Amino acid sequence: MKKEEKIFKAETKELLNLMIHSIYTNKEIFLRELISNANDAIDKLKFKSLTDTDILKGNDKFKININVDKENRTLTISDNGIGMTYEEVDDNIGTIAKSGSKLFKEQLEEAKKGDIDIIGQFGVGFYSGFIVADKITLETKSPYSENGVKWISSGDGNYEIEEIAKQDRGTKITLHLKDGDEYNEFLEDWKIKELVKKYSNYIRYEIYFGDEVINSTKPIWKKDKKELKDEDYNEFYKDKFNDFSDPLCVMHNSVEGTISYDSLLFIPSKPPMNYYSQDYEKGLQLYSRGVFIMDKASELVPEHFRFVKGLVDSQDLSLNISREMLQHDRQLKIIADKIEKRIQSELEKMLKNDREKYEEFFNSFGLQLKFGIYNSYGMLKEKLQDLLLYYSANEKKMVTFNEYVENMKDGQKEIYFASGESYEKIDHLPTVEMVKDKGFDILYMIDNVDEFCIQMLRDYKEKP
Q1: CA 14, CA 148: separation in Å to the nearest integer?
Q2: Taking the model in full, what pTM does it have?
Q3: What is the per-residue pLDDT for 95?
Q4: How is 184-251 classified by DSSP, letter by letter?
């Protein structure tokens, strides 16, 4: 049988050096990458089987296995997917994403200076194993090969590749973990389960850890809305976003078109403790085909709707999208635009059809809408002005600008407002009494931002 010793290409050598002396603070990303590769290998086999039914021998169930051997310090990820031929292993593993490009070399230089996501930008997930392993053994068999293939490297610039006798189709990757306390946790059952739940809980195929399936496979946002109850959404929200209260509002959408995605958005019933502080991070969780990419994709939700929590899952996004790429990704901008419109329409609908619920929302997050108008120097006026509520002196309740204008007396040309610490104190101002005596309604404003917000609005329906 064929056996060769080879040397990595220069760029791959440099990358391996970076992995081994890891500049990456997020060591755990390797498991996500290797599970995603296994998932893709099964997908490829299923796709091939549509035109070549012979490659599916037997009734083997598609699955991914993870095993730990503490004594030998090994972690193994295996699948029964498409596998690789000798040539494919040499082509795909021996060179780095087949890229000797100038761009790759430039990014490599940047990575040496700081924490640049090379894994994310070049889809080299397999190599991420070297973040935690000082040796990787890969065994694989393609349905189109008589023999299997074994590939071994310690990341020192060389690798061995040989043909082996292997019966089963698929790929097994064995990571020989580095010594040190920081790597020991990757041999612990709890850590493996935690990482699978965090990153790979919703991939399409079952992940076995020993005899136990440790992932959910079908996420709630992929289920038909008709089969879900309020309790299902509430429990998911509280568990996922660490809130004790049920959400005030749920928006579950499946969008197909030039870009397809599923989104599950929530408006909390109350602001988190740190909501109006600089520590609060806005953003939605981002998934690609059920695989977790990042926790706070701030580009997906505009600042004036920063209170919205939730997630977006799109099969059109690269699994390896990084924070640097987020800001320039055209598809993400399309999704963000659609999400903004969805939140806007939901709030308008709530205001129209469930006033009590909307007032509860406004009591919690109305300040954010006012900041939205002020911080945008009035550019968001048309979007947000009809969502604002203010206390009416005549009506003794919260009203919109539109409701105020509809109730204006004949001959009244202006909208009257008064600012103060409380409704009671405003009520006793001499100027307020004078305007009331004329029969005109007054809007009472008690938030610090109100006067700045009004300056940006200037008028409503041409009434100053």
Answers
A1: 29
A2: 0.77
A3: 54
A4: HGGGSHHHHHHHHHHHSTTSSSEEEETTEE---SS-GGGS-GGG--HHHHHHHHHHHHT-SSPPSEEE
